[in-house]
Specification:
about 90 residues, alpha/beta, 4-stranded parallel β-sheet, 4 strands, about 25% strand
Amino acid sequence: MKKILIVCGNGLGSSFIVEMNVKKIIKELGKEAEVSHTDLSSAKSEAADIYIGSNEIIASLDDGKRTVFGLNNLLDNAKIKEILTNNL
């Protein structure tokens, strides 16, 4: 099962909202994945198959080894669905 990590600056509000939306979309797609949220500092040492966050935050994790996806709008469920459809 793939692990998806939602990342924001403090690991509180926005990443939690995106986590809930990701879980809802995964269910709609009939897929399974482990989804959690965290802050940027913790994300740097946490392994996941997919990292999702705002463009500004997620750029710090893009080291060429991680699969990262930046969002212009954290509430853009159409973009989140596109990411999940193509990567799960």
